[in-house]
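In response to reviewer comment 3 from the previous cycle, which asked for concrete evidence that the modeling workflow produces usable outputs, we include below a single protein chain processed end to end. The sequence was submitted unchanged, and the resulting structure tokens are shown without manual editing.
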Amino acid sequence: MAEFSLAGLEEIIRQSAGEDDMAGVAESRDVTFDDLGFDSLALLEIVNRIERTYHVKLPEDDLTAVRTPNALVAFVNERLKESAA
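The workflow returned the following structure tokens.
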């Protein structure tokens, strides 16, 4: 099973948002996406790329509680564990 990491999130953010300055996601892992300047459309693109790259379904209803990079990494890893079982 592949594990999703903050480095993986940084790469997906670069690919989807073109944010070269997001190399600091690891340092901002507990800052909300809103405070980092990501709107709902940017987050939707990031989630879509995660789903395609990691072959995992991330239910939109469950994503509403995911507010930080750290929470997103944990959420994705939990879904990956569930899909591997």
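The chain has one domain: 6-84. We consider this sufficient to address the reviewer's concern, and the full set will be provided in the supplementary archive.
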